[in-house]
Write a structure and sequence with these properties.
13-stranded antiparallel β-sheet; Outer membrane phospholipase (ompla), Chain C; about 290 residues
Length: about 290
């Protein structure tokens, strides 16, 4: 399928707040991830524009949800090295029939703590980005390439996005990914399912869940977040590409039970849902065609 990927509304669209872009990006990645297809001739690039509605928590573990109506830019590029497809914007470093090594990234905007009750009085969260390698291992694929199961292994280093970027740790998100093209009884519709645990180091968890003693209150005691297990994430996405437009929707469930930081006073819930729908219209495509397996 991919917090954790084909035609997709571009946008990591999961605040001028962290919420808005995180929600947008998540819809892009998750919805796009549901679009698998067999090898066929496709345009080298496609561009378009649409609209999306998404509902997301302020952050993983927040008890505040936010709903946004956002523009949904659409961009697909199917180059030999650089690709923008169901797995996002990435550089393909190595590929065999079953194994692919890419270099990918993700982006989250800043978050205002004024809008988050649990973080009231604390410093805002800076915009941050993630970069790192990802291994995609195909475990099974149907003979017509319309069904496949993959193990995705992204490992990314995270940094604040400012004049002097600061390291905020690393994130590992192994996941099983099932792609189904042309769901039985629903021709043209594609389904993607994804599930896997998340892991982060101490700096990553401290950035989002740590409470410095200077910002401690009777209701929000000081807390040092350890690294390690960060909960489970489950994604489901459906989509269909029409002649002139694309439609997609996703549903995500996160469970933070057992997470190393679950005792943080900033974790207000251990279970939550996120969802979104999008429609994009294809405005143009290249006359150059390439053989591509998405």
């Amino acid at each position: 399928m991919t917090h954790r990927h084909t035609s997709c509304p571009a946008g990591r669209w999961p605040q001028r707040s962290l919420h808005a872009l995180r929600a947008g990006v998540a819809l892009w990645l998750i919805g796009a991830a549901s679009l698998a297809s067999a090898v066929e001739e496709k345009p080298l690039w496609e561009v378009g524009l649409g609209v999306a509605t998404v509902s997301f928590p302020a952050y993983r573990g927040s008890d505040q949800n936010h709903t946004f109506v956002l523009p949904a830019p659409y961009f697909v590029y199917r180059g030999e090295f650089l690709k923008a497809d169901r797995q996002g914007l990435r550089a393909q470093l190595f590929e065999t029939d079953r194994l692919e090594l890419t270099f990918s990234g993700a982006l989250s905007p800043p978050a205002s703590s004024e809008k988050i009750r649990a973080r009231s009085g604390m410093p805002d969260l800076d915009a941050n980005f993630e970069l790192g390698p990802q291994i995609d291992l195909t475990l099974w694929r149907s003979t017509d390439r319309a069904r496949q199961v993959q193990l995705l292994l992204p490992l990314r280093a995270a940094f604040t996005l400012e004049s002097r970027p600061k390291s905020i740790g690393w994130v590992l998100h192994p996941k099983l990914n099932l792609d189904i093209t042309d769901v039985q009884g629903l021709p043209g519709w594609n389904l993607g399912l994804q599930a896997g645990p998340l892991f982060g180091d101490r700096r990553q968890h401290s950035y989002f869940y740590g409470v410095n003693s200077a910002f401690a209150t009777p209701q929000r005691p000081a807390y040092q977040a350890p690294g390690g297990y960060a909960g489970m994430q489950y994604l489901a996405g459906v989509s269909k590409r029409y002649a002139g437009h694309w439609v997609g929707a996703f549903l995500r469930y996160d469970h933070l039970g057992g997470a190393r930081f679950e005792n943080s006073p900033l974790v207000r819930t251990r279970n939550y849902l996120a969802a979104g729908v999008a429609v994009t219209w294809i405005l143009g495509e290249s006359t150059t065609r390439v053989m591509f397996d998405e």
